[in-house]
Amino acid sequence: MAELALKSLTLSHFRSHKRAEIQCDGRPVAIYGANGSGKTNILEAVSLISPGRGLRRASAEDMTRRPEALGWKLTGLLQRDTQHSEIEIWSEGGAARQLKIDGKSQPQLELAKLARVLWLIPSMDRLWIEGAEGRRRFLDRMALSFFPSHGEATLTYEKAMRERNRLLKDQQRDAFWYKALEAQMAEQGAVIHNNRLKTLEALAQAQAAAETAFPTAALELTQSEGEMPVTAEDLQTALEESRFRDIAAGRSLVGPHRTDLYGVFAAKSVPARDCSTGEQKALLVSLILANARALSDQIGMPPILLLDEVAAHLDAARLAALYDEICGFGAQAWMTGTGPELFTSLGDRAQYLEVSENGGLSETAAGTPYG
Asked: What CATH topology corresponds to 1-123+303-371?
């Protein structure tokens, strides 16, 4: 299977890092250090080589180092099979981030042609017990990994919905003002819904085919009311029929933005929301691994994985099993933890970076300090 990996990464005035340089050889990267030392900031930098707002969903302005606020820059060398691409991402004065690939300016969506990046971060640990919005975002991120145009469909849908909601709040009753917006919502909404369904199917197949220490999560889409219209024509009809009810509510009550992701611990037939904290984390890990396996089959190489504070809520046996699976399908996983003992079972299968409280980096495995 072909390799997908960052071979180098330089951070300049990014978050807590004034300057950090990392050289990689394709193995998993285990990053450890005290809380607040800047470990997650490195993972966030890696997450920006994929389309979207990164693992924190932060603005470009929020990523700049304080108090200087000079702007920031990331540079990296990405290997995709035998192809190498130089990536530059930067922001000046809080402006939207810019991208160059091999010296040429490119839109963010071009990153999807080069790299697929999946992540699991501590805020996701509460996925099953918090609101539906977080679960939709989690599902849409997985859908984006399979369908790079999914993000554009989501943005277009949300823009049209905001404009429709403005009409609803203004108590506009003339159908003329709604037709074009509802047609756009219907077209993109059908794409979003079908991408989500195909994503759940790919995850189910990947979980069924895998030998893993992690539990299978049975997933389905649910609606707060009725069923989600599948075709664009049906969704447009539903939007038209719901218009007066929506005017009363002041918002759109029909569409993929009303969908929820329902999960079940399959072996126990227990809803994910009712599982223990450790079981909920294991289900999340299972889904990320299934996403990675399915994506590997689709694009012929494993995605880059970002696993922040990966050991939280996992016992030693499951943690060792996770490392075995990551190494088994050859993914470059960037992982963080507070101490090197959390990565003991990785042995020499990984590189080790220690982050000091002042943001300095040292490679402890090879004993070669970085500048």
From this structure: Rossmann fold (3.40.50)
Q: Look at the domain 129-274 and name its fold.
A: Glutathione S-transferase Yfyf (Class Pi); Chain A, domain 2 (1.20.1050)
Taking Cα atoms as reference points, which of 252, 237, 239 lies closest to residue 168?
Answer: 252
Point out the residues of the chain with pLDDT beneath 70. 1, 226, 359, 365-371
pTM for the complete prediction? Answer: 0.92
Domain ranges of the chain: 1-123+303-371, 129-274
